[in-house]
Design a protein that fits this description.
This protein has 5 helices and 8 strands, in the order βαβαβαβββαββα. It is α+β, with helices and mostly antiparallel strands. The strands form 2 sheets. A 6-stranded mixed beta sheet has the order 7-6-1-3-2-8, with helices on one face. It has a two-stranded antiparallel sheet with strand order 4-5. Strand 4 and strand 5 form a beta hairpin. Helix 3 packs parallel to helix 4. The longest helix is centred in the C-terminal third of the chain and has 20 residues. The protein starts with 46 loop residues before the first strand and ends in a 19-residue tail after the last helix.
Length: 214
Amino acid sequence: MFGRDKSSLPEPGKALAGRPERPWHLAAQHAVLDAPLVTDEVPAGHEVAIFGLGCFWGAEEAYWGLDGVFSTSVGYAGGETPHPSYEEVCSGRTGHTEAVRIVYDPTRVAFADLVKRFFEIHDPTQGMRQGNDVGTQYRSAIYWTTPAQEETARELTEVYGAELERRRLGSITTEIKPAPEYYYAEDPHQQYLAKNPFGYRCHANTGVRFPQTA
């Protein structure tokens, strides 16, 4: 199962079968924020953003401290396999990204600011990898949940892409798609770096700040 090329998505219909329900227990409470971990019921006035930007441990840490963020979680998105395990996602045979899901108050933090942070803390030009982390689960992705989010995501991708091109740092490979089914990752991965402060934080990045004129 784990011997294939992990840098190419599985052919349609050939992803792992998965399972009909989540087989693992998740904590009721977020380990950092005064909020529930599972937020299938989003509080009134809040929105959801889902990003793939490499190893989800560091990605989640980059967002849970932002003012206006109600809750975060890590999981799997953008693939075919229902309720995949971490090992299955890492095999490259589910098609999922390692994703961070953010529930936020748009009156306190704009989706545009979440996207700008997204671009600054990873390298969106690397295709199926981030630094030494290689595989389809590390690809760059923005999964929009509203038409306004899609418009903002595409506009800001164009702006940041033009800046990277100007600096000859490559072309953006970020996929921008409607939010797919999101599957919560196993409990040990949730808020991993709060539980393991000296844990792995691999986030390649371009070192380019988002243009101030945007």
